[in-house]
């Protein structure tokens, strides 16, 4: 009989419930130092107190667009001591990869959402356009010549770029990079024309005047000083355009319900921590406070995101093996 089943039966029998009983590992399916890694480390710190001072470590398991780390958690012991913090890739991987070693909606327990990160549409500083209307005119006047940068297949900038092309009805030359840093370097240097990327990566460049900013991807305008005057793509004519990079917390399928409940309660407390909120705001992120903070609401949202992005990715015909 599996240990997880024995644990579940013991809990059901009314035995004393103790969790955690050893250090908790939060797996980040990307290299250290990136936005998701930063969120995970801030979250680990905020979770310690509501989990009784537990030891929480972050383990970086990069590769294959995040799917290696996700698979490691899917196959881990389902006792709640191994968790996954993953961004929007949790919902886009089923369409991006022809074969996944796990089933997104079936092989995890959904703990709750953590944050939303807005995105901005930016361009090289030498671009002739100075606002969104001028940008659209310039794109239409230069069809077949516009270069759209992204940080690699499945990256936030890649997904946003796909939707932007689809909504605008114009195909651009996609230029993939191995990460945001080299893509941003070439935007600033004028080697590529435009890019859609997270505020965590663009705000400082916009503030410094090193790139031009044209719009934000959220349904409402942002309040960040450097971005508050930017229109939304929705109000600019791309109705329904809404791209935000979000993060959620997951456990392996079969993790006992009392453990999931305790992790969810701890997550709720962590997201109220003033220091955590302050750190997220500094990244341009917004802490989740709605129904997505519940396990059911979290799973419902991810399913909707899978249905949203699947057709966009398939229409573009861009897959990873």
CATH topology tier name of the largest domain? D-Maltodextrin-Binding Protein, domain 2
Discrete helix count: 11
Query: What percent of residues are in strands?
Result: 15-25%
Q: Mean pLDDT, as a whole number?
A: 91
CATH class of the largest domain: Alpha Beta
Report low-confidence residues grouped into runs of 5 or more: 9-15
Number of strands: 11
What kind of sheet is the major sheet?
A: 6 strands, mixed
The assigned CATH architecture of the largest domain is 3-Layer(aba) Sandwich
| C-alpha termini separation | 36 Å
Tell me the structural class.
alpha/beta
Going by CATH, the homologous superfamily of the largest domain would be Bordetella uptake gene, domain 1
> How many separate structural domains?
2
Structure description:
The protein has 321 residues and is an alpha/beta fold. It folds into two domains: 3-117 and 246-316, Bordetella uptake gene, domain 1 (D-Maltodextrin-Binding Protein, domain 2), CATH 3.40.190.150; 119-216, D-Maltodextrin-Binding Protein, domain 2, CATH 3.40.190. The chain contains eleven helices and eleven strands. The strands form two sheets. A six-stranded mixed beta sheet has the order 2-1-3-10-4-11, sandwiched between helices. A five-stranded mixed beta sheet has the order 7-6-8-5-9. Strand 6, helix 6 (156-168) and strand 7 (173-176) form a beta-alpha-beta unit. Helix 2 packs antiparallel against helix 10 and helix 6 (156-168) crosses helix 11 (295-316). The chain is globular and about 65 Å long. Mean pLDDT is 91; it is low at 9-15.
């Amino acid at each position: 009989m599996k240990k997880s089943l024995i644990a579940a039966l013991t809990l059901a029998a009314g035995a004393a419930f103790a969790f955690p009983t050893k250090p908790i590992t939060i797996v980040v399916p990307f290299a250290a130092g990136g936005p998701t890694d930063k969120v995970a480390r801030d979250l680990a710190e905020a979770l310690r107190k509501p989990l009784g001072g537990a030891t929480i470590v972050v383990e970086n398991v990069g590769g294959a667009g995040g799917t290696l780390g996700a698979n490691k958690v899917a196959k881990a012991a389902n006792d709640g001591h191994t968790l996954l913090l993953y961004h929007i890739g949790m919902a886009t991987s089923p369409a991006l990869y022809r074969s996944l070693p796990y089933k997104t909606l079936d092989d995890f327990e959904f703990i709750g959402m953590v944050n939303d990160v807005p995105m901005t549409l930016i361009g090289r500083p030498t671009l002739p356009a100075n606002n969104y209307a001028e940008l659209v005119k310039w794109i239409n006047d230069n069809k077949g010549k516009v270069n759209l940068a992204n940080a690699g297949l499945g990256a936030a900038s890649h997904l946003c770029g796909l939707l932007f092309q689809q909504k605008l009805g114009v195909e651009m030359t996609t230029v993939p990079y191995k990460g945001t840093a080299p893509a941003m370097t070439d935007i600033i240097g004028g080697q590529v024309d435009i890019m859609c990327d997270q505020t965590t990566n663009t705000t400082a460049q916009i503030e410094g005047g090193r790139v031009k900013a044209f719009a934000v991807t959220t349904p409402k305008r942002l309040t960040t000083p450097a971005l508050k005057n930017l229109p939304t793509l929705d109000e600019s004519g791309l109705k329904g355009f809404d791209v935000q990079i979000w993060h959620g917390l997951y456990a392996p399928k079969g993790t006992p319900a009392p453990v999931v409940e305790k992790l969810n309660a701890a997550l709720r407390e962590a997201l109220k921590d003033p220091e955590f909120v302050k750190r997220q705001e500094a990244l341009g992120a917004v802490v989740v406070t709605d129904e997505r903070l519940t396990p059911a609401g979290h799973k419902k949202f991810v399913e909707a995101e899978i249905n949203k992005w699947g057709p966009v990715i398939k229409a573009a015909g861009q897959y990873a093996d």
